[in-house]
Amino acid sequence: MSIAEAYDIPVARSPLVPPSPPRAPEDMTLFGRMKAIRESPIEMWGQRAYEEDIVQGRFFGRSSFILNAPDAIKHVLVDNYENYTRTPVSFRVLRPILGQGLLIAEGRAWKYQRRTLAPAFTPRAVMTLVPHMVTATDETVAKLRAASNAPVDLRQAMQRMTLEIAGRTMFSFGMDRHGAALRDFVMEYGARLARPNFLDLLLPLNWPSPQDLSRARFRKRWTAFVGMLMAERRAAGKNEGAPARDLFDLIGEARDPETGEAFTDDQLGDQVATMILAGHETTATALFWALYLLALDPATQEEVAKEVQGVTASGALDVERLKFTRAVLDETMRLYPPAFLIARAASGPDTVAGLPVKKKDVILIAPWLLHRHEKLWRDPNAFTPARFMTGTPPDRFAYLPFGVGPRVCIGAHFALVEATLALARMIGAFRVTLVDKEPVKPIGVVTTQPDRSPMFAITPR
């Protein structure tokens, strides 16, 4: 039986092609590129970047290389990854809110953090956190059901839900009292400080830009807030000898397998900030885009609902049986990758795909481009979840929703379990349609975000 027959997918209908930003003219001026970098970098690439394996250019006096060839990407992110570090602007934008946490640590510090944190994110460890995910999701469904007669902002609802999941899986307590403050921090940083300006790009990292001074003031307030959350969790205590009940326990009990060292309090705070922010914001955005696509494609939405009904009819929702729901999320993250750009600076000379790379040259690997590349995907701009159900997965270095190689996202399994369960619960409970018919376009601001939040109508099934 074919996939289409198994899932009753109407193969004859034309696939949905969701709206996307126009492609930049190949002769875009420096001013135009600077404007795009600040407002939405995914708008600075022209048609060549969607067709060619490697696009060479210049970036503030250095050579730059956009890589779309899987072998070249493997070389940079796996074979010789230690030669490529984050760019100065990446550090400028991320350090104030993530500190020295795993996401932006480099060298020995990164290796220490990675091996220390790894046991907290194994599939077995993640399964102990699933009850937190399910409870928070079911509460969100209940609240939406109670208000289902009115238009709803599902982006905001998904942000609140994933924040609640982040709070419960991290601390075992809800975010009723602290969620608004945390969202205010995230929104403030995204609106004022996450977009690089000209001096952020031009100045050496050890020369503070005016934005850096504002970021430093933000960081002082932010670290105090995270410290308060940690103090509240510690005050709640833990039964002596009881198993870990949340990520805070798991991370706090983690020890470097080589040295036996635990995280210091400052290091623990940076890990907490990284896990809460990187986890809840990217998952909320992926869920928003999945709901938006399913609202635009009612037939596919009904296939998800049918799968969910079939799985729940035999008992509890089993994430392993939600094959088509997972495929919808995989396809959503192909079209709207959580991290739209991976930027690296060469710390020494190298050769990539036969091209010489000098120290400080810039390597750009853009999942936004890679996932829509015309050589790598059939109908690259179309929403076709069935492409992930053929039994033949895409090239490992052509599909990077969570990165790849040694620095692949440590929370990838956690995020996929959370998002699959949440999407299944939402579509199993509601038929989702758009009230607002204006197109929603993606913009790149740290993550691939919508340019606005449309209103949805939800009808209980």
TrEMBL record:
Q: Hey, which family's this protein in?
A: Belongs to the cytochrome P450 family.
Q: Which GO terms describe its molecular function?
A: heme binding; iron ion binding; monooxygenase activity; oxidoreductase activity, acting on paired donors, with incorporation or reduction of molecular oxygen
Q: Name one Pfam family in it.
A: p450
Q: What is this protein called?
A: Cytochrome P450
Residues bound to heme: C409
Q: Which UniProt keywords apply?
A: Heme, Iron, Metal-binding, Monooxygenase, Oxidoreductase
Q: Does the keyword Protease apply?
A: no
Write down the required cofactor(s): heme
On the tree of life, the source organism's domain of life is Bacteria
| SUPFAM superfamilies (UniProt xref) | Cytochrome P450
